[in-house]
Design goal:
Layout: H1 2-29, E1 38-41, E2 44-47, E3 52-53, E4 57-60, E5 63-66, E6 71-72, E7 76-79, E8 82-85, E9 88-89, E10 93-96, E11 99-102, E12 107-108, E13 112-115, E14 118-121, E15 126-127, E16 131-132, H2 154-185, H3 187-199, H4 201-224, H5 229-259, H6 268-286, H7 295-310, H8 322-334, H9 339-359
Parallel strand pairs: 1-4, 2-5, 3-6, 4-7, 5-8, 6-9, 7-10, 8-11, 9-12, 10-13, 11-14, 12-15, 13-16
Length: 384
């Protein structure tokens, strides 16, 4: 009887140990919960079975899959991405572009807002809230009627012309004064950009043309991506300053060409101001030409924009190795002495040798060499 009791006790202990081990391994297989907001940008994210996301979920150009039994305790925002839901979402889903796929096991406790989003819903998927496919506000401007345009007399035309002319003069003078201030604040950077424009104008114009089309496209992408709007605003400010700085540096380059080549000694500040005034005047008057407008001004600004980009806002020279290359070329040219110089060097060496041999009385075995003595050479160039 005792043996039977012992065997049963041993079997019960083995069963308990096995069950506890199985329970621990089953618990360890459950993925950990995510207790923060999740942002998926251009990547793939999967919320596994029995896994919870306690936060908001934002999808920007990425792909997300919510497995059966998974739970999102928060709202979901989709911008140009894709999501496949098989679990539960305790919140709203807002989609702007992209796609939303609700499988049969999906359960949405909130509403679904799909603005230009491809929404597919299988039978069995539950949406407890509303399904809205339009803007949450109305754009009602009422009856729109064009206002009556008053007739403009000749006097008003003349006054308008005077006003535009004075505004153009004020703008030209303001840019000239601003160019003078820039040269006072950053003389080396402005001069470096101006010299770079003078050396290679068409290279800088080409780079400015590429920048003029590439940078706005990048800024539009940043602004459309709502999270990166602050970065897009900063980019717009930097791009605007680059255009303005390049315009002033181009005016300074024109001033250097016009006023520093003569005998007059003008200060860089005055040269920058006068050059910018001339440049801005050309752009303003060319804008009055029909079918041309601001085209000439835009094309001229590309010279300065490209120089600003290549010199990194005047912090480095372009091209970088131009000085070293010139120096190397000049040194290599100096390493080719003329035949007259070689003859002079040999004559000096020979005279010094004769002087030393004449003064050395302790060397009787050294034979005096007559430099004027004729030597006979054989065909191999050796002395006979």
């Amino acid at each position: 009887m005792k043996k039977v009791f012992t065997i049963l006790t041993f079997l019960i202990l083995i069963f308990c140990v096995t069950f506890s081990t199985f329970s621990v391994s089953a618990q360890s297989d459950n993925p950990p919960d995510i207790n923060e907001d999740k942002v998926v940008i251009g990547q793939t994210f999967t919320l596994k079975e029995n896994q919870e996301l306690n936060g908001e979920l934002a999808i920007i150009g990425g792909t997300v899959n919510l497995k059966p039994g998974s739970t999102v305790n928060g709202d979901i925002a989709i911008i140009g991405g894709a999501i496949e839901i098989e679990g539960t979402v305790n919140g709203d889903i807002q989609g702007l572009g992209g796609s939303i796929n609700l499988l049969s096991t999906a359960r949405i406790s909130g509403s679904v807002y799909n603005f230009s989003t491809n929404l597919t819903r299988e039978e069995g998927a539950v949406i407890e809230g509303q399904q809205i496919a339009s803007l949450p506000f109305n754009l009602d401007f009422g009856d729109f009627t064009s206002p009556n345009v008053p007739k403009i007399s000749n006097k008003n035309n003349f006054l308008g012309f005077i006003g535009n002319f004075l505004f153009a003069i004020l703008q030209i003078l303001a840019l000239g004064a601003f160019a003078m201030v820039i040269v006072l604040i950053a003389p080396k950077s402005t001069d470096r950009i101006a010299r770079s424009i003078i050396k290679q104008p068409f290279v800088h114009w080409g780079i400015g043309l590429l920048t003029f089309f590439a940078i706005p496209a990048v800024l539009i992408i940043l602004i459309v991506t709502i999270i990166l709007i602050p970065l897009g605003i900063i980019g717009i400010l930097v791009f605007s300053f680059a255009i303005l700085f390049g315009w002033l540096a181009l005016g300074y380059a024109i001033g250097k060409r016009l006023f520093e080549t003569g005998s007059g000694n003008y200060s860089p500040v005055l040269v920058a101001g006068l050059g910018t005034i001339i440049l801005t005047t050309i752009a303003r008057f060319s804008a009055l030409i029909p079918c041309i407008g601001w085209t000439i001004g835009v094309l001229l600004s590309l010279f300065g924009l490209g120089a600003v980009i290549l010199t990194r806002f005047g912090t480095r020279d372009y091209p970088v190795y131009e000085t070293g290359t010139t120096q190397l070329t000049s040194n290599s040219s100096n390493k080719s002495p003329k035949s007259e110089e070689v003859g002079s060097i040999l004559a000096n060496i020979k005279s010094d040798l004769n002087d030393d041999l004449g003064k050395d009385e302790m060397s009787p075995d050294i034979e005096q060499i007559d430099p004027n003595q004729d030597k006979e050479f054989d065909g191999n160039g050796e002395i006979k």
